[in-house]
């Protein structure tokens, strides 16, 4: 693809955005149906959580393999079958006659989802370079945030009719797969080198101080997101503000929409600021937001905290993705980004457990102070390990 002539609105961008929306559909869209599914199958609240675990576990195992295959066989050769598996298995969930059938189908759907997030970011790195890469990465993060904000509402609407209708949404992955196969441009894969040389190059790409610094920073970002924010922020709203489920949903959607707003401006911000400066700004915003949430309750602090947290996430995610995708050549990029996806899942898994250790004496201040402490560590990691990338054209 001629990167100089590529436009932010070319059809490759729409394919990338479509895959992003599908990648975040698997959990966000079905959670509103959980109470109804519990009642229908006579489950306990503990059982219903397996619908998420069954979907996410295959990604931990398969994501690196999918990245390697995408480097060796081509992006579409992995992306298209993954979308088909996601769409077919997800749709069949609507016809499950037992909870066990539903779990098995969710595992298969999770196998299809394993490659979507990492290959999608890889495609941004393949097809775009320089400022355009940062712009597309920012827009992609915006699309992701909008999906996270709107899927629960869509899931709730479908659940009001019938919980099975929620599983009609994954069917959208099937036409997307066909369109990607037919029309999406990808960078041709150079004749594969020997397996030994390939894995040597992948390790050489990973085993650098800036990469390890960004990987550990990514873990901390998702510990904050899945621990302090997604796990304990709703509890804060319920316990301290007596907020209804509707208010909690609106507050959390507001954060996602704020993230989308700031992410969409990444192209402009990258022209004015260095990536290290943007990451520092994002980390400082995390710190301020979490300190505000740890303070005594009050709407005058809560609303700014939500906005500042959205700012932090909107700056950090696309900036780190842009930097990381620039650190690997096209021949090892999918495997490299799949390792990053594993890093993110590590933060997602550790977040609720680690931050929960600071929930002491029924006080929520500790969980947000712990998140602020993670932000301080992130600041030190970036300060000590990150070096500007001079060449982002790979």
CATH architecture of the largest domain: Up-down Bundle
Element pattern in H and E:
HHHHHHHHHHHHHHHHHHH
**Number of beta strands:** 0
What's the number of structural domains? 2
Distance between the termini: 13 Å
> Helical residue percent?
over 70%
Please, what is the CATH homologous superfamily of the largest domain? MFS general substrate transporter like domains
- Approximate shape: globular
Rg, Å, rounded: 21 Å
Q: Which regions are unreliable across 5 or more consecutive residues at pLDDT < 50?
A: 1-9, 390-394
Query: Which CATH class of the largest domain applies here?
Result: Mainly Alpha
The CATH topology assignment of the largest domain is Growth Hormone, Chain: A
**Whole-number average pLDDT?**
85
Beta-strand percentage range: under 5%
Sheet having the most strands: none
């Amino acid at each position: 693809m001629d990167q100089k002539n590529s436009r932010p609105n070319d059809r490759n961008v729409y394919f990338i955005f479509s895959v992003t929306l599908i990648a975040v559909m698997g959990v966000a869209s079905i959670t509103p149906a959980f109470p109804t599914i519990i009642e229908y199958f006579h489950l306990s609240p503990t059982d219903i959580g397996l619908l998420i675990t069954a979907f996410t576990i295959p990604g931990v195992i398969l994501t690196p393999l999918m990245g390697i295959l995408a480097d060796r066989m081509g992006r579409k050769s992995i992306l298209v079958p993954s979308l088909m598996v996601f769409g077919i298995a997800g749709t069949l969930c609507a016809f499950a006659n037992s909870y066990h059938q539903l779990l098995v189908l969710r595992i298969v759907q999770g196998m299809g989802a394993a490659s979507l997030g990492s290959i999608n970011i890889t495609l941004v790195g393949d097809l775009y370079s320089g400022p355009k890469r940062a712009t597309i990465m920012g827009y992609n993060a915006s699309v992701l945030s909008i999906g996270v904000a709107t899927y629960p509402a869509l899931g709730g609407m479908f659940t009001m009719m019938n919980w099975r209708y929620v599983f009609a949404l994954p069917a959208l992955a099937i036409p997307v797969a066909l369109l990607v196969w037919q029309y999406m441009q990808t960078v041709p894969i150079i004749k594969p080198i020997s397996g030994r040389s390939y894995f040597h190059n992948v390790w050489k790409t990973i085993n650098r101080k800036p990469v390890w610094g960004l990987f550990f920073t990514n873990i901390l970002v998702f510990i904050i997101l899945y621990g302090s924010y997604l796990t304990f922020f709703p509890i804060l709203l319920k316990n301290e503000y007596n907020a209804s489920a509707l208010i909690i949903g609106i507050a959390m959607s507001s954060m996602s929409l704020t993230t989308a707003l700031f992410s969409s401006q990444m192209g402009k911000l990258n022209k004015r600021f260095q990536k290290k400066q943007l990451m520092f700004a994002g980390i400082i915003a995390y710190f301020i937001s979490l300190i505000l949430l740890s303070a005594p309750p009050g709407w005058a602090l809560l609303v700014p905290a939500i906005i500042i947290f959205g700012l932090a996430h909107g700056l950090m995610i696309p900036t780190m993705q842009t930097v990381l995708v620039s650190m690997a050549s096209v021949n090892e990029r999918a495997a490299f980004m799949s390792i990053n996806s594993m890093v993110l899942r590590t933060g997602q898994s550790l977040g609720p457990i680690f931050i929960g250790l600071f929930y002491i004496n029924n006080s929520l201040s500790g969980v947000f102070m712990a998140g602020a402490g993670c932000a301080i560590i992130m600041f030190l990691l970036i300060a000590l390990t990150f070096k500007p990338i001079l060449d982002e054209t790979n």
